[in-house]
């Protein structure tokens, strides 16, 4: 692994992250999945290596790394354990980034150093039973009451809810219809009237503590309104960085692990008196997986660099996320097939790799919604091939 696209510092980050993840996270990845137990203890290891809240500036205790650097770290963590990568992404994902860019100075001083130390986890809650892709349909409401807001409503599919300390929650803050009435508030775990539900079981990422949230006359201070009604465009700008560093980077890491694992398996397994790796048909499947993976990494790295340079278009994150989501499903699916019955067995990691990436084409904007963005750029003349 010697990437000419990385400078010396980035290569060191990559190698350190890989060694750490292989030593500490891979050995317990299958157990976390089997027990549905978020591996929160891994955050201590990540924090010790300086890999929590990587983007957070030095004045708040962080290293102020670029989005690209975060992507390099996250890929290596996800190779070893996707659940750990998702937990990690909450320390430098949507909620911490929103606090840095949109929060008050007091919120920054209170929360950002804790994310860097791995002492606090943050969740992001948009989805509701009746509002998925259609964010403007959010019904959970926060009403002003003297110097506070009172929240009522229900959320669903909130990743890391069961272990998070702080939640960024999209709510209806005014009577204005559609997106004009939607904003966002910060809610701390333990606030009276705020309940975190039972674990919601999806196909994969079983150890991320996903749950629904209920708000019943939950009172928060007025300064916890982080995005006022009608200000969602500011939040979506922040989210583009998170869209790259979390979801598709986890897919890239898992796809890399699947390709490496399948390659080793084919070299080891013998049928018809020779190793499976000697069958040209199977070699070509490996070659296809490698081409797919390289294309995905190139798109993702390019998008991260463009966001860092302030030169990204709305297409960059959508193209990279959509391609890498679908690439990872193809690659992990082929890895299972190449390993035969063992590929489908829990004795090997291949079926977990497939399960862990499958939901990513739905999370953080479905691949259809991102195709809508790409098509809009094309049709409205902002992109030409
Ligand atoms: C692994 C995972 C993690 C998640 N984590 C979180 C989280 O932390 N916080 C959170 O708030 N939510 C989270 N979600 C929820 C996720 O954001 C929603 O599932 C997603 O936004 C889609 O909403 P929906 O499930 O209601 O589907 P719907 O919006 O009902 O869509 C159903 C289908 O219709 C398609 N569709 C809808 N509208 C259009 C359109 N205009 N054009 C074309 N096709 C369309 C969709 O692409 C999809 O295929 C997570 C989901 C998953 C799978």
From TrEMBL:
EC number: 1.-.-.-
Domain Acyl-CoA oxidase/dehydrogenase middle: 124-218
Coiled-coil segments: none
GO molecular function, one term: oxidoreductase activity
Stretches assigned to the Acyl-CoA dehydrogenase/oxidase C-terminal domain: 249-379
UniProt keywords, alphabetically: FAD, Flavoprotein, Oxidoreductase
Taxonomy, superkingdom: Bacteria
Acyl-CoA dehydrogenase/oxidase N-terminal domain span: 8-119
Known cofactor(s): FAD
First-level EC class: oxidoreductase
PANTHER family: ACYL-COA DEHYDROGENASE, ISOVALERYL-COA DEHYDROGENASE, MITOCHONDRIAL-RELATED
Family: Belongs to the acyl-CoA dehydrogenase family.
Name of this chain's protein: Acyl-CoA dehydrogenase family protein
Organism from which the protein derives: Muricoccus vinaceus
């Amino acid at each position: 692994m010697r990437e000419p696209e990385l400078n010396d510092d980035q290569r060191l980050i990559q190698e350190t992250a890989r060694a750490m993840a292989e030593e500490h996270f891979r050995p317990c990845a299958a157990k976390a999945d089997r027990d549905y137990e978020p591996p929160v203890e891994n955050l201590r290891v990540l924090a010790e290596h300086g890999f929590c809240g990587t983007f957070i500036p030095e004045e708040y205790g962080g290293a102020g790394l670029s989005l690209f650097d975060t992507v390099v770290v996250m890929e290596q963590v996800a190779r070893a354990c996707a659940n750990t990568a998702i937990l990690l992404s909450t320390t430098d994902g949507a909620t911490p980034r929103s606090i840095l860019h949109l929060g008050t100075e007091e919120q920054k001083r209170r929360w950002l150093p804790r994310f860097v130390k791995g002492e606090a986890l943050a969740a992001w809650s948009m989805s509701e039973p009746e509002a998925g892709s259609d964010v403007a349909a959010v019904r959970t409401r926060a009403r002003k009451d003297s110097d506070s807001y009172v929240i009522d409503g229900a959320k669903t599919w909130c990743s890391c809810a069961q272990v998070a300390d702080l939640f960024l929650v999209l709510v209806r803050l005014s009577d204005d219809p559609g997106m004009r009435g939607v904003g966002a508030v910060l809610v701390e775990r333990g606030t009276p009237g705020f309940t975190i539900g039972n674990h919601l079981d999806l196909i994969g990422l079983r150890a991320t503590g996903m749950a629904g949230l209920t708000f019943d006359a939950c009172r928060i201070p007025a300064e916890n309104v982080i995005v006022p009604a009608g200000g969602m465009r500011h939040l979506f700008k922040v989210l583009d960085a998170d869209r790259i560093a979390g979801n598709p980077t986890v897919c890239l890491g898992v796809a890399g692990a699947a390709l490496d694992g399948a390659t080793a398996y084919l070299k080891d397994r013998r049928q018809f008196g020779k190793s499976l790796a000697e069958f040209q048909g199977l070699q070509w499947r490996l070659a296809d997986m490698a081409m797919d993976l390289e294309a995905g990494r190139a798109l993702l790295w390019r998008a991260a660099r463009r966001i860092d340079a302030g030169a990204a278009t709305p297409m960059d994150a959508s193209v990279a996320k959509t391609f890498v989501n679908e690439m990872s499903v193809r690659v992990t699916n082929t890895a299972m097939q190449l390993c035969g019955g063992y590929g489908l067995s829990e004795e090997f990691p291949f079926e977990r790799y497939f399960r862990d990436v499958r939901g990513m084409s739905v999370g953080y904007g479905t691949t259809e919604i991102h195709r809508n963005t790409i098509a809009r750029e094309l049709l409205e003349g902002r992109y030409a091939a």
